[in-house]
Design goal:
Number of strands: 4
Shape: elongated
Distance between the termini: 26 Å
Helix content: 25-40%
Mean pLDDT: 94
Largest sheet: 4 strands, antiparallel
Number of helices: 1
């Protein structure tokens, strides 16, 4: 998933092994790379992408303080 929050573009790479929950493998925000970040798993890609977007929003909001 490619998305933007505020003025930051980011990319989320997720994976879902057959029969298992989806999880975020990588989040890239500009030059910053977060390998296997602490993002809640999801029952499917939609859920894990919502979790990833919320994670990025919290991270970027905290960086702007």
């Amino acid at each position: 998933m490619d998305a933007t929050y505020g003025h930051a573009d980011y990319r989320v790479t997720a994976w879902q092994p057959q029969g298992k929950p989806a999880f975020v493998f990588l989040i890239a925000i500009g030059e910053r790379r977060l390998l296997q970040p602490n993002v809640a798993e999801g029952k499917d890609f939609d859920e894990v992408m919502r979790n990833a977007a919320a994670f990025v929003e919290r991270l970027l909001d905290a960086d702007s303080v």
